[in-house]
Amino acid sequence: MHYNTIIVGGGPAGLFTAQALAKKQKRVLLLERNKGAGKKLLISGAGQCNFTHAGDIEDFFNCYDDKAKFLKKALLAFDNKKTMRFFEEAGVAYTVFPNNKVFPKSMKSVDILNALLVQCQKSNVEMIYNELVNQISVYDKVFTVETATGKRYFSDQVVIATGGKSYAHMGSDGTGYLLAKHLGHRIIEPRPALTDVRLDENTFKVLSGVSVKQIEVTIWREQKKIQNYVGDLLFTHKGLSGPAIINSSRWMKSGDALQVNFLYPKSYENIKAYFASEVAKRGKEEIITFLKQFELPRTLYQALCQRISLDEHTTCAELSKKQREALVDQLTRCPFTIASLGGFHIAMVTAGGVHLKEVNPTTMESRKQKGLYFVGEVLDIDGDTGGYNIQAAFSTAALCADSIMQNKK
């Protein structure tokens, strides 16, 4: 059977594209490999689904690293306000947290999924589950979509919305990259993003569950600065996590060196000069007491002292210059070595994907093959935590659907 458009993948990007297109096209087919749509969406935000962010749309452009330029047209065409209005009109009440994260009021991701499915149903989207697409070809402007069950479907346009490689057990195992590659597209090597890091060092295991506000983490590789990021840090029983680590993990590799400034925005030089003038004035005051002024967890001070073999009960008068400077170094340039990153099985999103230079950012259409479109995480885009990735899925989907309709006109 011949369709106007076939959409491959029933995640948020695929579902949003389908319902938007089907409101204006007669024959829209969505093929999903799982027995139901939105399997990964259901576990988003621990099952609560932070589906967008309520901040100024201009601030979004700081949350996608160097991919923001590609996303700008899509984000402006269908912004976070339109996303919130879409779900509100679909019957989903939402709540905005103090940090501007937006959740369904019920705090249940199934409400977001059901709203998308109802819109697809109302728009008469034809949906076929348990249908894994393993090949797409095109001849004389007609796409042939073949599946693992041996079926073949035909269409004028194809939208690939298969997601990345994170949570492969949910169906996003990188199939979309193979389809894109077969159609002539380059793939930026997929890697885990929005994940934690593992350390081999045992010193900080006792801090598991302890968090520190507004630290700066700097990533170094082969003695070259790669990137830095400011945010909250969380110690885990395996290593480091929290927004500062998770959001900067897109730049990290195993073996990279991290420097953490626990006293940001003060620098090593600031604190070194302060210690030099103040420690001498404190006399018999123990160093563990002196450190209280910086309002960090006591257990962190203890771990840092242990790391440089400094007795926390050493008095300020007894502290040598070498010990003093070593402590300043731990507080402002604390070094860690990444043993490994959390794998695709725990990474929230995938970095890498279909090369953005081969996709038109004003339409989401392939520059290699007319009538072929890409939306959502299958593209080489990844954003910070906080609803930015799902918003990118909705925005690219909306722009894609609008572009297809404009082309038909």
Automatic annotation (TrEMBL):
Keywords: FAD, Flavoprotein
Pfam families in UniProt: HI0933_like, HI0933_like_1st
Residue span, RsdA/BaiN/AoA(So)-like insert domain: 191-349
InterPro entries hit by this protein: BaiN-like, BaiN-like_dom_sf, FAD/NAD-bd_sf, RsdA/BaiN/AoA(So)-like_dom, RsdA/BaiN/AoA(So)_Rossmann
Domain RsdA/BaiN/AoA(So)-like Rossmann fold-like positions: 4-402
Cofactor(s) of this protein: FAD
Lipid metabolism listed as a keyword: no
Entries under PANTHER family matching the protein: OS12G0638800 PROTEIN (PTHR42887:SF2)
Name under which the protein is recorded: HI0933 family protein
Protein source organism: Cellulosilyticum lentocellum (strain ATCC 49066 / DSM 5427 / NCIMB 11756 / RHM5) (Clostridium lentocellum)
